[in-house]
């Protein structure tokens, strides 16, 4: 696959996210479509004040979170806490962020 641009409107006009694949792993780079793992994941139906189009932002967040869980994607975004990469798990109507294990390889 390589990389694929995804239209993820709502946050800003023309906002895009990316799917990047390599070595059998696909990562969803959400940009600012999922800017805060607490509000966006716990309450994806909340309208965010910083979204340009708040109703579309809600639809985009729900779509990205559903895709991340269904396709078991590795996920990263611009404002995620260290290590900034992880997975998304669905819990009822909410989602939970599962940060990836950080492995420090001193040999490289």
The CATH architecture comes to 4-Layer Sandwich
DSSP E strands, number: 6
Which residues sit in consecutive blocks of at least 5 with pLDDT less than 50?
none
Give Rg in angstroms. Answer: 14 Å
Q: What does the largest sheet look like?
A: 6 strands, mixed
Mean pLDDT: 90
Number of discrete domains: 1
Which class do the helix and strand fractions yield? alpha+beta
- Tally the helices: what do you get? 2
Strand order of the largest sheet: 1-2-3-4-5-6
Please trace the helix and strand order, writing H or E for each element: EEEHHEEE
Distance between the termini: 28 Å
Share of helix, binned: 10-25%
Kindly estimate the percentage of residues that lie in beta strands according to DSSP: 25-35%
Which homologous superfamily in CATH is the superfamily?
Ribonuclease Z/Hydroxyacylglutathione hydrolase-like
Shape: globular
Structure description:
The mean pLDDT is 90. The relative contact order is 0.18. The protein has a six-stranded mixed β-sheet with strand order 1-2-3-4-5-6. With 108 residues, it is of the alpha+beta class. It starts with a strand and ends in a 9-residue tail after the last strand. The protein contains two helices and six strands, in the order βββααβββ. It has one domain: Metallo-beta-lactamase, Chain A (4-Layer Sandwich). It is 19% helix and 31% strand.
């Amino acid at each position: 696959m390589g990389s694929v641009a995804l239209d993820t409107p709502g946050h800003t006009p023309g906002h895009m996210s990316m799917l990047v694949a390599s070595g059998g792993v696909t990562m969803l780079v959400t940009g600012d479509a999922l800017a805060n793992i607490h509000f966006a994941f716990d309450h994806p139906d909340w309208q965010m004040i910083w979204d340009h189009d708040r109703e579309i932002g809600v639809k985009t967040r729900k779509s990205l979170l559903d895709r991340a869980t269904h396709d078991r994607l590795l996920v990263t975004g611009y404002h995620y806490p260290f290590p900034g990469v992880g997975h998304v798990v669905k819990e009822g109507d909410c989602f939970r962020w599962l940060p990836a294990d950080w492995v420090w390889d001193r040999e490289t």
